[in-house]
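Request: Could I get any protein with tokenized structure?
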Amino acid sequence: MINIEGCIITIDAMGCQKGITEKITENNADYVIALKGNQKTMYEEVKLNFDDFSELAQNTETYDTGHGRKETREYFLEPNIDFITQNFDWINLNAVGMVRTTVEIKNEIRTEERYYITSVTDVNEFALAVRGHWSIENQLHWNLDVIFREDSARAKKDNSPLNMNILRKTALSVLNRVKFHRMTKPKMMFKAALNTSFLERLVFRGK
């Protein structure tokens, strides 16, 4: 339903499915998808072999500082995927990637490695896609936490956390597409709670 031709689609590990890569490819787009334990065999194969590849793979890095935090991200892309047992089962799978993030805060250093499957073959495109994905994720999480206080939510039973998360994101999408004389999102929410006419304008008219 969405025109994605020429785009690079980035998805978290829950989207690491053969059917999804097939749909993306059918619509003439590329993908960068996180690889974790839900594809256990492939994840273990990539993780095990990347130590051998990291010195030979295409690589680049970015460096950020701010608020007493120093962050280095190293991006590696390896097109040699013959070691993956089921590599032919994944449509347009051209490479595997790894991102090594090193964060230094107050002389404390923390390192994390994340793995990906992708159809792109240029490490700079891979790095840009991963960086863009996490930028969007971080902004979304900040809005959900600060405006909706999601991290403090008490709904824990059954499907209620997922249901509430969907409702918050729906509300956030409404707030993101409207502007009322520089009114902040919390103020718009407060006014909508007190004034049904304003709520109607917010939800259905957006102006």
In short: The chain has two domains: 8-138, 150-205. The CA atoms of residues 58 and 166 lie 38 Å apart. DSSP finds six helices and six strands in the chain. The longest helix spans residues 123-146.
